[in-house]
Design a protein that fits this description.
Length: about 280
């Protein structure tokens, strides 16, 4: 197959992935605000769209990790990238059809590694980068759990010392703030994953530096992902009401903990699962 054609297919599928990633991000970031009735459904979608877009325009560490921190780019081909993105998307579409919240990060890393190993064996892996990513996959949900657990204990003491009605009114407003912050954090981490895939393809096709991410690429993927938020209604309902019912205080703690973990891992250049956090 012609290299230009493969490159265009990889780029097109990556933008499709960005769109689907936005769908999942909507559920992750906005579900607690809607579940606790802090925001109406439509207002939550507008907030998610704006903050997801803004977050996608900041930082490139995760994209660089995806493009050069997992496998040796000089030992793979565009066909490997195509196989990886196709495998990941097939699984993502399947889980979306059945409204199952899963980690597209795990799917992407696994698919990319599987396709690369099929071509060049285990020697093709950048072990230092892989260990960092896998460690974050294991520990980020634990950090999210601990953050939510201990933050709620602190909040409970404050609520008991104050008027319950006034405090719940305050937390409803804080949850809106946290929903925006989580959407921003999602954009900062998840936007960089499709950017990283396209960057690999650009390196292989044009020979550009894998550590320099073009601004046009960041902007176009961020816009695509933000539009996916509008289509995330089904997963929002699953995450917001069918898994667990949250009080106002619990919703605030969940959002604050998740967003903080996402910020930390994003600035460290580590792709993690926003769903699991």
């Amino acid at each position: 197959m012609n290299e230009m054609l493969i490159f265009l297919i990889v780029a097109g599928l990556s933008y499709f992935y960005a769109f689907f990633s936005g769908i999942g991000d909507a559920a992750n970031a906005l579900s607690t605000a809607i579940s606790t009735r802090s925001l109406s459904f439509n207002k939550a979608l507008v907030l998610g769209f704006i903050m997801q877009l803004f977050g996608g325009l900041v930082g490139t560490g995760v994209a660089v990790t995806i493009s050069s921190g997992l496998v040796m780019i000089d030992k793979i081909s565009l066909e490997v990238v195509l196989a990886g993105i196709l495998a990941m998307l097939i699984w993502s579409v399947f889980t979306y059809i059945f409204s199952i919240p899963v980690s597209d990060t795990h799917s992407l890393v696994g698919a990319l590694l599987g396709a690369s190993i099929a071509m060049g064996g285990l020697n093709i892996i950048v072990w230092g980068g892989l260990i960092k990513v896998v460690s974050a996959m294991l520990f980020s949900p634990i950090l999210g759990f601990l953050g939510g657990y201990f933050l709620l204990h602190m909040i409970t003491k404050i609520v008991h010392a104050k008027s319950t009605t006034s405090m719940r009114s305050l937390f409803k407003k804080l949850i809106i703030l946290m929903a925006g912050f989580t959407s921003f954090s999602n954009g900062l981490n998840n936007n960089q994953k499709p950017v990283g895939i396209i960057l690999i393809a650009l390196v292989l096709y044009t020979g550009i530096n894998s550590h320099i991410v073009p601004m046009w690429l960041i902007v176009s993927v961020a816009i695509t992902q933000a539009f996916g938020v509008i289509w995330g209604t089904r997963l929002i309902k699953t995450m917001g009401s069918r898994i667990i019912q949250l009080s106002t205080e619990q919703g605030f703690c969940a959002q604050a903990s998740a967003a903080t973990v996402l910020q930390l891992t994003s600035w460290l250049g580590i792709p993690v699962s926003t769903t699991q956090v």
